[in-house]
Specification:
Length: 143
């Protein structure tokens, strides 16, 4: 398409946060995926055909990625943010998970869960994971 992707990735907010390359951003995404095997990689806005961890080829920008996941059939979005993106969606609930407590406290009205407690308060990864799963179940039950 003749577009230089370096103009859009990493985003200005990522750069302010310390990222210098799309490779660094990708390594962060890999780390967030944990150790669960990837079951399928799908194109933007396409539906999955497998259960488990599915990766969608979306733009990295908040609104565009959420839109693609919803178009692909997602019924609840769990969105992690380190800088406080308030991205939501008018047709599907978005659970916003703050990666650090300072940002969570600053943007409490826009964030749903504080995962910064893993580093700041020594809460276990398993405990925070359980809080996230409990929130997904509660949101799904209310929808």
């Amino acid at each position: 398409m003749g577009v230089d992707m370096r103009g859009g990735q990493p985003t200005p907010g990522n750069i302010v946060g310390g990222l210098t390359t799309i490779e660094e951003k990708s390594l962060g995404a890999i780390a967030k995926g944990g150790s669960t095997p990837i079951r399928e990689v799908i194109r933007y806005a396409h539906r999955t055909t497998r259960r488990g961890l599915v990766i969608m080829d979306t733009p990295a920008n908040d609104v565009e990625s959420v839109t693609g996941m919803v178009a692909g059939g997602a019924q609840v979005i769990v969105f992690t943010t380190g800088r406080g993106s308030p991205a939501g969606c008018p047709v599907v609930p978005v659970i916003k998970v703050a990666s650090n407590t300072a940002m969570y406290q600053r943007l409490r009205d826009d964030m749903d869960l504080d995962a910064g407690t893993i580093i700041g308060a020594g809460e276990s990864l398993e405990s925070v994971g359980r809080r996230i799963v409990d929130e997904i179940v509660a949101v799904a039950a209310a929808s």
